[in-house]
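Quick one:
INPUT:
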């Protein structure tokens, strides 16, 4: 199975200067755990609910002045839409990530692959192996 068969499409993203409150609203309104951050037609980071808490709230920062860039994780891992699911699952397990942006051959984001997508698109053995690898550090 190819990643594009399991991923979800229509991913919402934001520019790095997006106020943190708006990013939090996007997470809530779209019922997702991550918002990709893009600049100059490139994916430059990801903001998770955990990033907001650990890099914003827990640091005691004035949240009203923070932007997506202030709390985002950079060095984004991704996979290609035409990758095999087994390759993508191994990549996610190796990097211990729960979500992976999916890009096409032109490196334009076309979707997101998440644990939920994997549970619907992979066999039980792959799901178990992936879940164990990703959660091993917790």
């Amino acid at each position: 199975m190819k990643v594009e068969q399991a991923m979800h499409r229509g991913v919402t993203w934001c520019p790095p200067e997006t106020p943190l409150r708006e990013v939090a609203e996007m997470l809530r309104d779209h019922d997702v755990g991550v918002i990709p951050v893009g600049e100059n037609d490139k994916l430059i980071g990801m903001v998770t609910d955990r990033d907001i808490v650990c890099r914003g709230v827990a640091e005691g920062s004035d949240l009203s002045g923070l932007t997506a860039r202030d709390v985002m994780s950079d060095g984004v891992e991704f996979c290609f839409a035409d990758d095999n699911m087994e390759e993508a699952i191994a990549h996610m397990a190796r990097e211990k990530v729960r979500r992976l942006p999916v890009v096409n051959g032109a490196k334009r984001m076309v979707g997101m692959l998440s644990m939920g997508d994997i549970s619907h698109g992979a066999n039980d053995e792959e799901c178990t192996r992936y879940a164990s690898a990703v959660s091993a550090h917790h």
